[in-house]
Specification:
Helix content is about 65%, strand content about 0%. The chain has helices spanning about 5-20, 30, 40-50, 55-60, 70-85, 90-120, 135-165, 170-185, 205-235, 245-270, 285-305, 310-330, 335-355. α3 (about 40-50) crosses α13 (about 335-355) and α11 runs antiparallel to α12 (about 310-330).
Amino acid sequence: MPLDLLQEARRQAEICNACRYCEGYCSVFPALHQKRVFTDGDITQLANLCHNCRGCYYACQYTAPHEFDLNLPKALAEVRRDSWERFAWPAPAARAFHTHGTMIAAASVLGFALLFLAIRAIGSAGGEGFYAALSHNAMVAIFAPAFLFPLASLAVGLRRYWRSVGGARIRWAHLVGAFGMVAKMKDLAAGHGDGCNFEEEDRFSHARRYAHQLVMYGFLLCFAATSAGTVMHYGFGLHAPYGLFSLPKLLGVPGGVMLAAGTGWIAWLKLSADREVGDATAWGGEMGFVLLLGFVAVSGLALYALGGTGAMPLMLALHLGAVLSFFLLTPYTKMAHGFYRLAALVRDAQRKQETAPGTGNEATA
């Protein structure tokens, strides 16, 4: 990691540690205040705990033009992005996406869509509904490796991260605490519970928290719909297309609507927010990922609506191109943040256990 990013984040963390005005704002500050000296791993852990809600920045008395010139959300965002690039496998792909994300996402979707149209043209179809345009076997042959590759890539990155932050053996209690924080997205409500200041300096809002929840739960519903369809196909011999009141549709349609609404909301909030209170160099990559995920949802809903029309083959190619792009790019996009954030919360749960009263470590952490 570039030494200047770590040094600047360390300088600001030391000042925040002396001030302690923001002690209850989010998970970052209790963890920060447990330290007296910050290692590189400590800074990386704090950066991945940060959700860039910006409440601390707008409450801080030491921002510019003060000589301390604090901008902790920006410093941690830069370290966070750099850590993802460093831990990613292969790393050059992450650096490219964070810089040119929108262009890469658009090119990937169009390129894969043309590939699917070409496969259809040479005769891979066979079946009813969507399978009349692209056979089930062709879909499996393409998407199975595309699903497994990002899992392997993320596993390598998370292992590197865990070693970097000094992670210990994971226990059930650590997972329960971390998943509880993710489910509620508690840190986006800030310590006072009024929300954060992401889009406006003087206005507390839960908008970003609710938008993230729409995206997360919408995505999980869509994933559950795909899983249900897989079980029905292989376990019960019930093949697509499925009706409106089938489990895949009952899960997938609401999930798609939530995902589309959440990504659109996040994109609007990002356009409204000050880019200089974050990592401005990664803004294009973050927006590219949000738009890609939104297009996956919108194209999936459009595909369902147009499934019985002549537009179905083209819409299917565009949707599958978006889904394939999403899978292959996941380890290098903002989607990786969800996994690193979870890992950071698990490590933070360990830190709380290690420094709990009666352990003998609370004074030396």
